[in-house]
Amino acid sequence: MGLFGITIPEEYGGAGMSYFIYGLAMQELERGDSGLRSMASVQNSLVMYPIFRYGSEEQKKKWLPLLASGEKIGCYGLTEPDHGSDPGGMETKAEKINGGWRLNGTKMWITNGTIADVAVVWAKTEQGIRGFLVEKGTPGFTANKVKGKFSLRASDTGELVFDDCEIPEENQLPLAQGLRAPLSCLNEARYGIAWGAMGAAMACYEEALDYAKNRKQFGKPIAGFQLVQEKLVEMLNEITKGTLLNFQVGRLKDQGKAKFYHISLAKRNNVFHALQIARSARSILAANGITDEYQTIRHMMNLESVFTYEGTHDIHTLIVGESITGIGAFR
Ligand SMILES: Cc1cc2nc3c(=O)[nH]c(=O)nc-3n(C[C@H](O)[C@H](O)[C@H](O)COP(=O)(O)OP(=O)(O)OC[C@H]3O[C@@H](n4cnc5c(N)ncnc54)[C@H](O)[C@@H]3O)c2cc1C
């Protein structure tokens, strides 16, 4: 459907479209399911973007068209079992060897992890953090499925293990230097998440509104009770504000003026309110709302992951807090 590589130039197989369009696409995918949007976010923002921004011309020509068409799927390995909010503490190491690099370490909670053909992996070298492309089937690289998730069940989540995994020199992303590189990719993905969360919220709102108009108690539709109306109005209120926030950040992004803290503000606000909306919608659906006959509880459970990944709600609070006070409160 052309949903991979939306902002990547057409010469590399992308759609060459605006960030505004990218945002709308993420909104509509997440109206279906956050897992679907997660897959598209990773492919667009965390795999194609780093290859486009930090890759060599050969890497771009080799990978971008295949990723745009969906013939190849990618994943992004930054988080580790012991380093989530603080990725700079990563322990995965890349050691220089003759003609390439040797990787050792573990990445955790990796979306598309077990289905990916190529992993963008971040590791510490003697020169600081660097990015690498590790192809499926490389000796020493294994991916294990994370099982038992109550959230994002439609999305593949994996653990990537590198045990003396040797990759050729040409698989290093030549322009990615330091922690700024992986953080810049997260910024791209967070932008799409801010839009996506509103899509999930819209789905919950529409389902709750429809249900409230049809469900009768005390002889009339529950939509006729003031308390239910207040819940619906609050939902519409926050969806309207969150969507306008997305419109403005989208315009800024297309003008090259969106700062990382604008995107943190949007991700933080929109995911928080989407989760509140999902919970409120679930309360209107009451007993019916706990079953999978309705979509609301699925969105609600999904949004718990969205609240945590790509920088938790707390971390985005600290990012915005630092930007307005000039004082970092991370540690
Ligand atoms: C379904 C799913 C998919 C994911 N996909 C990917 C992926 O594709 N690639 C990838 O690299 N990662 C991925 N992640 C990982 C995700 O980005 C991390 O889970 C997230 O960054 C939080 O890290 P953590 O879970 O280790 O929590 P921790 O960092 O251990 O945080 C625990 C709690 O402490 C709080 N906290 C931490 N530091 C501070 C502080 N300084 N001040 C105040 N509070 C603080 C946090 O807000 C949180 O509430 C995924 C996660 C999930 C759940």
Structural class: alpha+beta
Number of domains: 3
Largest beta sheet: what is the strand line-up? 2-3-7-6
Percentage of residues assigned to helices = 40-55%
Shape, per Cα inertia axes: elongated
Rg measurement, Å: 21 Å
| CATH fold-level name of the largest domain | Butyryl-CoA Dehydrogenase, subunit A, domain 3
Distance between the termini: 44 Å
The CATH H-level homologous superfamily of the largest domain: Butyryl-CoA Dehydrogenase, subunit A, domain 3
Description:
The protein has eight helices and nine strands. It has helices spanning 19-32, 34-54, 57-69, 180-214, 226-254, 260-285, 296-308, 313-325, and strands spanning 74-77, 93-97, 100-111, 118-125, 128-135, 141-145, 157-168, 216-217, 220-221. A hairpin with a 2-residue loop joins strand 4 and strand 5. It is elongated. The chain has three domains: 10-69, Acyl-CoA dehydrogenase/oxidase, N-terminal domain (Butyryl-Coa Dehydrogenase, subunit A, domain 1, Orthogonal Bundle), CATH 1.10.540.10; 74-171, Butyryl-CoA Dehydrogenase, subunit A, domain 2 (Beta Barrel), CATH 2.40.110; 180-325, Butyryl-CoA Dehydrogenase, subunit A, domain 3, CATH 1.20.140. The protein has 331 residues and is α+β, with helices and mostly antiparallel strands. The structure holds flavin-adenine dinucleotide. Flavin-adenine dinucleotide binds at residues 42, 76-79, 84-85, 109-111, 152, 157, 305, 308-310, 312, 314-315, 318, 330.
